[in-house]
Specification:
Layout: E1 3-5, H1 15-21, E2 30-32, H2 42-45, H3 50-58, H4 67-78, H5 80-83, E3 90-93, E4 96-100, H6 110-127, E5 135-140, H7 144-153, E6 159-166, H8 172-179, E7 186-191, H9 195-207, H10 209-214, E8 217-218, H11 225-246, E9 251-256, H12 261-272, E10 276-283, H13 288-295, E11 297-299, H14 319-326, H15 331-344, E12 346-348, E13 352-353, E14 359-360, E15 365-369, H16 372-386, H17 392-403, E16 410-414, H18 422-429, H19 438-443, E17 451-453, H20 457-468
Parallel strand pairs: 4-16, 5-6, 5-8, 6-7, 7-17, 9-10, 9-16, 10-15
Antiparallel strand pairs: 1-2, 3-4, 11-12, 13-14
Helix pairs in contact: 3-4, 3-11, 4-6, 6-7, 6-11, 7-8, 11-12, 16-17, 16-18
The chain binds pyridoxal-5'-phosphate (PLP).
């Protein structure tokens, strides 16, 4: 499989360079040149383990790594002894289904992709004949991504990771999930500033091309193609599980959405031929995507803080991949749209009028946003009716799924374990004993390490240089 950029300005590359590149060199996102159709293989896949299914789903996208090596990488990643638990079990909750994606090391769905990405980086670096054998990852986090990225690469050969978080402004659990990792290749930076400062410094350092090249700087953010690819797999596994449980010909998925990475993986699965009749996109009050799918207009608004911080996003970094297909893979037209968006904060695509008066941007999607009140009510009701505790991100998906309940069975993606968000669970249910997990409880007594740095690009740059020099 060859990969292109959504902006059409790079030469086609294979899978491994695409993974190492992250963002394409022309500023676009990496996309596969074709989407394989696997419809006639689905029956044969039903009996496969998760790891074997992952190999079948991913292999057509990976041309430049021998199949046996891919099998070994995937096997190691999703072996429960390494991963910490099952990858994507489905449980029935009332009349709907929950796809629990939070059994990995940091109890969030990002582990599914970042655990694999860490293994891929290590493998590609070790084989890299002429390129660098070292990768130094720089990341800025407001919470969840940082710990999942750290767990993805901790202890790996040839890789260092530097994660900046805003000092005193991430939740105590999220901070401890990062700073209790003491591997020598993990460097936590508590920056005396805001999340925006962290992100600005990261972008400035990544834009310092001489520094970037000299120190082999890379990124793990959600635009990396391997992250989307790893997430396609569980749409196939969950659809097959629920078909088995219900006999339904097709299923739908409700996906709590921020950067549009997870639901985009569902869309790819659908285009590959997974038995999916529709995707239900759920946002919190940061509703740019819900507005887009209902009106065809994508327009910026202010960022609100909510109970689901990993979805407190306005510009969805993976949305460009979807738009690329909406303009018939025309890189030039897409570049025009993205330029218009960065100039005016707005872009729009034509909508079709549909029965019922709804004006929808895409028949494959239904979309709505959940308010804080909706989320608290969903957590409370789901617990009192079914004895099942939803985390606040999953609760957004649950609340929105209820609006679209008529139709094929719905599978709600559970993207985080509720124990990561005890305050929201207590606010919803009045109980402090519902959101517990031994991994979270254990954090309290563990030693931590992090470096407090001034809100200054030069200070961060010197810190990185010193650490890499072994000081
Ligand atoms: C990252 C995250 C999301 C949003 O996923 P996207 O791929 O960014 O849309 C939802 N829930 C949780 C818990 C997350 O960490």
């Amino acid at each position: 499989m060859e990969y292109a950029s959504t902006r059409g300005q790079i030469r086609p590359v294979g899978f491994s360079p695409a993974v190492m590149m992250g963002l394409a060199d022309d500023g676009g996102l990496i996309v596969p040149k074709t989407i394989p159709d696997v419809r006639d293989r689905l029956d044969g896949w039903r009996k496969l383990s998760y790891a074997d299914l992952a190999l079948e789903v991913m292999a057509p996208f990976i041309g430049d790594i021998p199949r046996d090596d891919v099998r070994a990488l995937i096997g190691r990643t999703y072996d429960p002894r390494n991963y910490g638990g099952p990858v994507a079990p489905v449980v029935r909750v009332g009349g709907t289904f929950v796809l629990e994606l939070f059994h990995g090391p940091t109890l969030a769905f990002k582990d599914v992709a970042l655990q694999l990405l860490g293994n891929l980086f290590e493998y590609i670096l070790a084989r890299n004949p002429e390129g660098s054998r070292e990768l130094n990852i720089l990341a800025a986090t407001s919470g969840d991504t940082g710990s999942a990225a750290i767990y993805g690469v901790r202890g790996r050969k040839g890789i260092n990771i530097f994660v900046m978080h805003p000092h005193g402004r991430v939740s105590p659990i999220q901070e401890r999930q990062m700073t209790t990792v003491l591997d020598a290749n993990v460097h936590n930076i508590a920056l005396e500033g805001s999340f925006d400062d962290c992100q600005r410094i990261m972008k400035e350092l990544a834009g310092d091309l001489e520094f970037k090249k000299r120190y082999s700087l890379g990124a793990v953010n959600s635009v990396n193609w391997a992250r989307v690819l790893a997430q396609i797999v569980y749409y196939f596994s969950a659809a097959a599980d629920v078909q088995k449980l219900t006999g339904a010909a097709k299923v739908r998925f409700a996906v709590p959405t921020g950067n549009f990475g997870d639901v985009l993986a569902g869309w790819y699965a659908m285009k590959m031929g997974a038995p999916i009749s529709g995707l239900i996109l759920a946002t919190n009050e940061n509703d740019i995507l819900a507005r887009f799918f209902n009106t065809g207009e994508y327009s910026l608004a202010d960022v609100h803080q909510t109970l689901s911080p990993s979805m407190d996003i306005q510009v969805a970094s993976n949305f460009e991949r979807y738009l690329y297909y909406r303009v018939a893979q025309d890189g030039e037209r897409l570049s025009g749209l993205m330029k218009e968006f960065s100039r005016t904060g707005k872009l729009s695509i034509p909508c079709e009028a549909r029965p019922g008066g709804a004006n929808l941007a895409d028949k494959d999607f239904r979309a709505a946003s959940a308010t804080t009140a909706d989320v608290l009510e969903a957590i409370r009701q789901c617990h009192s009716r079914h004895g099942y505790v939803l985390d606040p991100h999953t609760a957004c998906g649950w609340a929105v799924a209820e609006k679209f309940s008529a139709g094929d069975p719905i599978i709600c993606l559970a993207t985080a374990h509720p124990a990561k968000f005890p305050a929201a669970i207590e606010q919803a249910t009045g109980r402090s004993d519902l959101a517990r997990h031994p991994k979270i409880a254990a954090l309290i007594d563990m030693p931590t390490r992090s470096s407090l740095l001034a809100n200054d690009k030069q200070a961060v740059k010197e810190f990185i240089i010193n650490k890499l020099a072994g000081c």
